[in-house]
Specification:
The complex is a heterodimer. By secondary structure, chain A is an alpha+beta fold. Chain A has helices at residues 46-68, 81-103, 151-157, 163-166, 205-208, 213-222, 227-240, 265-273; strands spanning 7-14, 24-29, 34-41, 111-112, 114-120, 123-129, 133-138, 141-144, 174-175, 188-193, 199-203, 247-254. In chain A, strands 2, 3, 4, 5, 6 and 10 form a 6-stranded antiparallel β-sheet that branches. A 5-stranded antiparallel β-sheet of chain A has the order 1-12-11-7-8. The two termini of chain B are 44 Å apart. Classes of the chains: A alpha+beta, B mainly beta.
């Protein structure tokens, strides 16, 4: 099912003001409802390699799979097809990166964060690993959808520090999960309903470390009519505030509902008998 | 590395580097920082340091622990906080280098789960007797030496206010129903116009104000010239026409 009428997607990635390399990678395809953002880490250009591989495997490769595969419904094990698909693909990507890191010394220790979403049937299934985030603007309400897998978040959760104090923490850059650093990885996979008018923001920590959530929300609201400009503005704000890290954003606007075509009773019965 | 400067009556007694994850303060000799004074409890307080962050916790001391004059049970120490125990003062100094020569400061790093668990356990267990470093070198992949890992930039990562040198800009409406009204451009973004018809945004940036077209078939006009989709810098006394309304941009001094 072609979703390009229902979704408007804009991507931006920028090395920032300090770094010479851009270790972030982004991919988005509105037709198959897929958005992927990865923030690589590791010496030399290994971070770029890790995030590039992630985006290639979970972006363009997965997009090809999606052209032929039906993602509605459940697997025989009563699991959502979308979950099963993401789990398999993420596991495969993880082992690919892990193996390259093991086999080639210049890539040793490379890894990447991941935040991605698959839009289908008025829903989205999100997967994330690490501290790249997904935010949602629905009406006036701007909220963070994902929760970072980071030391700081764990400290906040366990009550050691408050979110206000967290702004001044020096441990912002420690993630507790990453793709490609261990033989296995546990992605956090969730489902959300989407509504026409929603705007989703995927970003690397280069944005949310440099720009307050409040400012990000305000920008999305003010410029919701023009996503291209909004993405440019977000990157610019991060750079104006110092741009110490690579900045990447993906903006997705739900233009209209996109329910999956319901099949008739007979077709379903037939499929069930088959 | 963070350190404490112990002083009494303005006299510096000693400097104590926070080189252990858990540093206890008290009157009894087994404490890491012993202060032999009757106003100090046997086990008075503890400072837990996780990488670059230090947390002070009062261990139910008789006379209490104060930070910058406030009584605290638990406190996230900030550079130049002054901890007061009885007549003694401990100044917390955690100066982070302004810029590291290596270009890879503030890089996202992976923290291994096993290493995480260790640190978490240690924070949780107050009764833990043997202090050990939570993060051992061999827990960290060779590519991430711990010394290099958490070197954050000194400036708070939260967006600083736009450079003070930029004078405040404002818009005065020159025509239409709101003629004469003035609007100060204090926010990072100010949208102007009628949603659905024509909207432009004025962005406040460190080096000036910029106007950009957001939506609508027609583009804003500045000093008689129609803009394109690019951001256009605004100069003092520029006249903007938007959705049939004329307005003047000016800088307040």
């Amino acid at each position: 099912m072609d979703l390009s009428q229902a979704l408007e997607i804009v991507t931006r990635t920028d090395p920032g003001m300090v770094r010479s390399h851009n270790e972030d990678s982004v991919y988005a395809a509105s037709a198959c409802g897929l958005a992927v953002l990865a923030d690589g880490m590791g010496g030399y250009n290994a971070g770029e390699v890790a995030s590039g591989m992630t985006v290639a495997l979970l972006g363009s490769e997965l997009a090809k799979t999606l052209e032929t595969q039906e993602i509605n419904g459940f697997t025989p094990e009563k699991k959502r097809v979308s979950h099963a698909l993401l789990e398999t693909e993420i596991a495969r990507t993880n082992s690919t990166i892990y193996q390259s890191a093991q086999s080639q010394p210049q890539y040793a220790g490379m890894g990447t964060t991941l935040v991605m979403a698959l839009f289908y049937d008025d829903k989205m299934t999100t997967a994330h690993i690490g501290d790249s985030r997904l935010y949602r603007l629905r009406g006036e309400e701007f909220a963070q959808v994902t929760r970072d897998h980071s030391l700081l978040q764990e400290q906040i959760d366990s009550g050691i520090i408050t979110p206000e104090q967290a702004k001044f923490s020096q441990n912002k850059n420690l993630v507790t999960r990453a793709l490609g650093v261990d033989p296995e990885v546990e992605p956090e996979i969730r489902d959300y309903d989407t509504q026409p008018g929603d705007i989703y923001l995927f970003c690397s920590d280069g944005l949310n470390d440099m720009v307050d959530d409040e400012e990000i929300g305000m920008t999305l609201q003010a410029l919701s009519a023009n996503l291209e400009l909004c993405a440019t503005q977000l990157v610019q704000m991060a750079n104006d505030n110092g741009g110490r890290d690579n900045v990447s954003v993906i903006l997705v606007r739900i233009k209209s509902a996109y329910p999956a075509p319901r099949r008739g009773l007979f077709a379903r019965l037939f499929a069930w008998l088959k | 590395m963070a350190k404490l400067i112990l002083s009494m009556d303005g006299l510096v007694l000693k400097e104590i580097p926070l080189n252990k994850e858990r540093m206890t303060i008290g009157r009894k000799p087994h404490n890491d920082i012993q202060i032999d004074n009757l106003a100090i409890s046997g086990e008075h307080a503890v400072i837990v340091t996780i990488l670059n962050d230090s947390f002070l916790e009062d261990l139910n001391s008789t006379n209490g622990t104060y930070v910058n004059g406030q009584s605290v049970k638990k406190h996230f120490l900030q550079n130049s906080d002054v901890v007061e125990l009885g007549k003694y003062r401990l100044k917390y100094v955690n100066e982070v280098p302004q810029q590291t020569p290596a270009a890879d400061f503030e890089k996202t790093m992976i923290l291994r789960p096993d290493m995480m668990r260790k640190t978490a356990d240690q924070i949780a267990s107050k009764s833990m007797s043997d202090t050990q470093t939570g993060i051992k070198a061999d827990d960290i992949a060779a590519a991430h030496p711990p010394t290099q890992a958490p070197v954050p930039a000194a400036a708070p990562a939260v967006a600083p206010a736009p450079v003070a040198a930029l004078p405040l800009g404002a818009i005065q409406i020159l025509s239409g129903a709101n003629m004469g009204k003035e609007l100060e451009l204090t926010k990072t973004l100010t949208t102007l116009g009628k949603p659905g018809v024509q909207v432009a945004v004025i962005a406040r940036r460190p080096h000036g104000y910029f106007i950009t077209h957001v939506e609508g078939a027609s583009f804003p006009v500045v000093n008689g010239a129609t803009l394109d989709a690019q951001a256009h810098p605004l100069a003092d006394h520029d006249v903007i026409e938007l959705a049939g309304v004329k307005m003047e941009f000016f800088l307040k001094t």
